[in-house]
Write a structure and sequence with these properties.
Layout lengths: L3 H6 L3 H25 L10 H10 L4 H20 L3 H48 L3 E6 L4 E4 L1 H7 L3 H4 L4 H6 L9 H8 L3 E7 L4 E11 L5 E10 L1 H23 L3 E5 L7 E4 L1 H6 L5 H5 L10 H14 L2 E9 L5 E12 L5 E10 L1 H58 L4 H27 L8 E4 H9 L8 E4 L4 E5 L3 H15 L5 E9 L2 E8 L23 H11 L4 E4 L8 E7 L3 E3 L8
Parallel strand pairs: 12-14
Antiparallel strand pairs: 1-2, 1-5, 3-4, 4-5, 6-7, 6-10, 8-9, 9-10, 11-13, 13-18, 14-15, 15-17, 16-17
């Protein structure tokens, strides 16, 4: 305050009250004796002391207190000096001065009180702000001693703020005996200017951006500095991560064997970036050289560029768009482009990002494959014609041979009737058996001649089974196909497979009344299961039944089944239990079957 001694005494309310009342009592008593002694000029000035003290300590009660003192004083004057008009006028005038002085001092005291409150609030606000700032703040003198630190700094140093006062900053922060070489405060002491440094400090646990600003007194003399250290550890990790990401991006861009580019969407087009593969693909020695070439100059036909942009506008993205470009030397090149636009706030295309792949060789290979396929089709057609002619010739030849065999059998039977010689008859029987075997071989060629003649094709499994069974006299035998919507890739003679399975059941099953077809998917394909309730196949014959010539009949049926299925890699095996019926499992590789309805329909 303005009066430090008075302020110091007034710190205690009891002393303050005693001081006011004591001086007031003393001044009044002295004035009483003065009036009695006839002294009226100097002694009344003592009353200013309690009035000023009361107005100072109790500004809102100063005027009433002064009025109270004035009343007591005027009563004393009237009582003792009533006969002297000059003393009465002087006393009344003095009382007015008492009140005026009290009013002035009270006003000034209130102003001082308000200013002190504002200063106190400002100080408290500054201290709260000082401690609330997340940055680490320290005030340091010219001897590197800490004057004050905020709460953030104290927490980093793991001490209380007042414990840091007086410590050397390099001892508290860096745990060294001298300032480090990079110390910005040392540089500020030398030139008096603000300095900023990035500092890594293990003791504080991270990276910091340190700014030191000069502190000066009222005369402008340097007294120290304000240290502000901002923790940039997360930012450093993010710039590092960004650098690593950018490096990975550049590495990826440069290591890709396809072109990556970004260009503008105007008619001419300007490359914003590209990788080395893109530049080399188009015959340019470097990315920098390519970046200087307008995109339109890469098109043999500029109208294709306009169509590309139009389609990109309408579709929003282009995938596997095949276009023709030209290299630096004018050589045409076919490329496949995937492009996606980046739109700006107004809805226009800001730039286009794309990936471009050279498929010139692939296109040439495709063209060559198409030519080969056409040749293959012509070859297959010629082969089919040749097979057809061979089958016709084979059929005619087989028919003629069978006619000759029939005539030969008749002559042998007639010859046998002309003799009774046992030796000759034995030879006749052997010759007859040989000719009949030849007849069966010729018949077999009739079965076998159509296998593999036509190319395999996708065939609906359920309808093929039902169509094959419809050709047989099932009678009381029930046929159940417990699946639908499965197609298999097999020889067109696949129908004969199911025909022979059902025929064998009717012919050899003895008491078959039920035939069932089911299917199940496995990890490596599809298994078609045939089951009947006949006598079944003995264990020792499960593999023999697929050998040509084995069995009660001709043995050709199951042999042909295995041959027909094997053309497309399909395998068949008998897995039934003898006495409980036959069971055949037909395994179809995964790439040789497909569904036209959900597979949950399989039972």
């Amino acid at each position: 305050m303005i009066f430090p001694p008075i302020d110091r005494f007034g710190a205690d309310p009891r002393i303050r009250l005693a001081l006011v009342l004591g001086t007031a009592t003393g001044a009044l008593v002295v004035n009483l004796f003065g009036l009695l002694a006839g002294i009226t000029v100097v002694i009344p000035h003592l009353l200013y002391i309690p009035i000023i003290l009361a107005s100072f300590y109790y500004p809102r009660r100063g005027v009433p207190f002064a009025a109270w003192i004035a009343v007591i004083y005027i009563l004393m004057v009237i009582s003792i000096r009533s006969g002297i008009p000059a003393d009465l006028v002087s006393a009344f005038a003095r009382c007015v001065v008492f009140v005026v002085i009290a009013a002035v001092v009270s006003y000034l005291s209130l102003r001082v009180e308000e200013e002190e409150m504002q200063i106190r609030h400002a100080k408290e606000e500054w201290e709260r702000t000082f401690d609330a700032v997340p940055d680490l703040i320290a005030l340091i003198d010219l001897n590197h001693r800490i004057l004050r630190i905020n709460r953030g700094m104290a927490e980093k140093l793991r001490i209380k703020p007042d414990e840091a006062v007086g410590l050397h900053c390099y001892e508290a922060v860096h745990c060294t005996n001298n300032p480090p070489d990079f110390c910005p405060h040392s540089r500020l002491i030398l030139d008096g200017n603000e300095h900023t440094s990035e500092v890594h400090e293990d003791h504080l646990g991270g990276d910091f951006l340190v700014t030191v600003s000069p502190l000066r007194d009222l005369q402008g003399n340097l007294t120290g500095s304000v240290h502000v250290a901002r923790d940039i550890t997360a930012r450093q990790r993010a710039e590092k991560a960004l650098r690593e990401s950018e490096e990975k991006f550049r590495t990826l861009m440069e290591n890709l064997n396809v072109g990556v580019y970004r260009n503008t969407a105007d008619d001419r087009g300007r490359f914003l970036l590209a990788n080395t593969a893109q530049a080399h693909m188009l015959g340019y020695g470097s990315v920098e050289e390519l970046l200087g070439v307008p995109v339109i100059d890469l098109y043999p036909n500029p109208e294709e560029r306009k169509k590309f942009l139009t389609d990109l506008h309408s579709c929003g993205v282009l995938k596997d768009r095949v276009i023709q470009l030209k290299k630096k030397d004018g050589t045409p090149i076919w490329v496949s482009v995937n492009a996606r636009p980046k739109y700006n706030e107004s809805g226009g295309i800001e730039w286009i990002d794309g990936v471009i792949e050279d498929n010139t060789e692939r296109r040439a290979l495709q063209q060559e494959m198409e030519n080969h396929n056409k040749e293959l089709v012509r070859f297959n057609e010629a082969l089919a014609q040749a097979n057809k002619k061979l089958n016709i010739l084979s059929s005619i030849t087989r028919h003629d041979i069978l006619n000759k065999i029939t005539a030969l059998l008749a002559y042998l039977e007639l010859s046998a009737e002309l003799t009774k010689d046992p030796s000759l008859l034995e030879y006749f029987h052997k010759e007859l058996a040989t000719i009949q075997a030849i007849e069966r071989q010729i018949d077999f060629t009739g079965y076998y001649q159509d296998i593999g003649v036509r190319a395999p094709e996708w065939q609906d499994l359920s309808s093929t089974i039902r169509r094959a069974a419809a050709q047989l006299p099932l009678g009381a035998v029930s046929l159940t196909v417990q699946f639908d919507g499965i197609s298999i890739f097999a020889d067109p003679l696949i129908e004969k497979v199911f025909y022979n399975l059902v025929e064998n059941a009717i012919r050899h099953g003895e008491h078959v009344t039920s035939i069932t077809f089911t299917a199940k998917e496995t990890r490596d394909g599809l298994t078609i299961i045939y089951e009947d309730n006949g006598v079944g196949i003995p264990k020792e014959n499960k593999e023999k039944i697929f050998i040509r010539g084995f069995g009660k009949h001709t043995g050709l049926g199951l042999f042909l089944i295995r041959e027909i299925l094997s053309i497309t890699g399909i395998i068949i095996a008998e897995t039934g239990e003898f006495g409980k019926g036959a069971r055949f499992e037909i395994h179809v590789p995964a790439d040789r079957y497909r569904w036209s309805v959900p597979s949950t329909d399989v039972q």
